[in-house]
Write a structure and sequence with these properties.
single chain, mainly alpha, Lysozyme, 2 domains, about 50% helix, about 5% strand
């Protein structure tokens, strides 16, 4: 009885059963293919990932430059900018600043060049002469006359001097309350009284050096040649064209 019923059902619905079976078979194949492709990337996807890898894990941050991180080039010192030579005394002759450290000279230039330029503009003295004479007389501001007496040019006491005095190496020198006062008195010394004629020398630092030596106000021997030596070793004459 059951067999007859089954035969009758297949005759009536055989086509539908066959189609349904085929559909189930196709669906099962599709699920298998989908599972395989889901777990294994295609060759094209592999190649793409090779060229543009997707970062699944956070990598170590790379250093970068931003507005807060800037590269600043160290500025050269005034010694490097003005000097013809890295170390003083490479020219022939005695170096008048041989005992002075290069850092002391550089600090002196940084501190007093602007004052010297102002004095040069006001009184017509070459900047190179003002700076060189201050370097020579004060040994770049390292001797006691400059450090304690603020006298950077070793200007001596005179009959008409009414200010404070400072004794240095058993000699009487003028004492100032501030360094810039020493620079101003030096300018007045070289451009007034018997020295007013120096103004005719213009920016000829050789002529100025020789003229200052003739005043014999300083006991430094061969003062003119030493001033010229300092000017040319530090290339201070470049400052004269800017004054």
């Amino acid at each position: 009885m059951i067999a007859q019923t089954t035969i009758y059902f297949l005759r009536q619905h055989g086509v539908k059963v066959l189609l349904f079976s085929i559909l189930l078979f196709l669906l099962s194949k599709k699920d298998i293919s989908f599972g395989i492709h889901f777990r294994t990337p295609s060759p094209m996807l592999k190649e793409q990932n090779k060229e543009n890898p997707v970062q699944q894990v956070k990598q170590k941050e790379q250093p970068y430059l931003s507005e807060d991180i800037t590269t600043v080039k160290k500025e050269s010192s005034l010694m490097e900018r003005f000097s013809n030579f890295p170390i003083l005394g490479t020219r022939s002759g005695k170096n008048p600043l041989k005992e002075i450290d290069v850092a002391e000279i550089d600090a002196f230039l940084n501190r007093f060049i602007k004052i010297a330029q102002a004095e040069a503009q006001k009184y017509g003295i070459p900047v190179s002469i003002i700076v060189a004479n201050a370097l020579l007389q004060s040994q770049a501001g390292t001797n006691d006359l400059a450090k304690q007496g603020h006298n950077y040019f070793a200007l001596p006491c005179t009959d008409n001097w009414q200010g404070e005095t400072f004794w240095f190496k058993k000699e009487c020198y003028r004492q100032y309350d501030k360094p810039w006062t020493s620079f101003r008195d030096h300018s007045l010394f070289l451009t007034t009284g018997p020295n007013v004629q120096f103004l005719e020398l213009g920016n000829d630092y050789h002529a100025w050096a020789k003229a200052i030596e003739r005043t014999q106000y300083s006991n430094i021997p061969k003062m003119a040649s030493q001033l010229i030596h300092i000017i040319e070793n530090l290339n201070l004459q470049r400052l004269d064209s800017k004054s």
